[in-house]
């Protein structure tokens, strides 16, 4: 099993960009990290590299992972410049080299990088599990964050794929399956 932790960076978790249930999401991601490590799986951290002047520009404080995240620098780190963590990155090869193409996806932001990465992975013969309570976003002008998260969880479960299906489940249910 492999766990993708998408864009849990300080520049996305500021007073100006409050995220829905941020503390709970981080706590659940950390529980998944611990479970996957315990089971001998791999953690793959995804970090967005914004352009110069952006809060996520490399080397800036906002580019760093949130302090509460159980990040280990010796684990896998993939840097990206687009919403899709697979676009022009070694992510697909990194996943496939392990021989286990099952991934759990978590992170920020549900309606941008998480959604794009989930859909991209689903088209690449990867077994996709989404921790439905371990991804977050902010309120948008037309919809609140909680409804965005609910909508995306429903959409992913109901996507019509060429083969397979995206599994969306609560963190605790995924942990039970990882540990059995």
Plain-language structure description:
This protein has 180 residues and is an alpha/beta fold. The chain has a single domain, classed as Rossmann fold. It is built from 5 helices and 6 strands, in the order βαββαβαβαβα. The protein has a 6-stranded parallel sheet, sandwiched between helices. Helix 3 links the parallel strand 4 and strand 5. Helix 1 packs parallel to helix 5 and helix 3 packs parallel to helix 4. It is globular, with a radius of gyration of 15 Å. The two termini are 12 Å apart. 37% of the residues are buried. The model has no long low-confidence stretch (mean pLDDT 97).
Question: Helices, strands, pairings?
Answer:
Blueprint: E1 2-6, H1 22-38, E2 42-48, E3 76-80, H2 91-97, E4 102-108, H3 110-122, E5 127-136, H4 145-158, E6 167-169, H5 171-178
Parallel strand pairs: 1-2, 1-4, 2-3, 4-5, 5-6
Helix pairs in contact: 1-5, 3-4
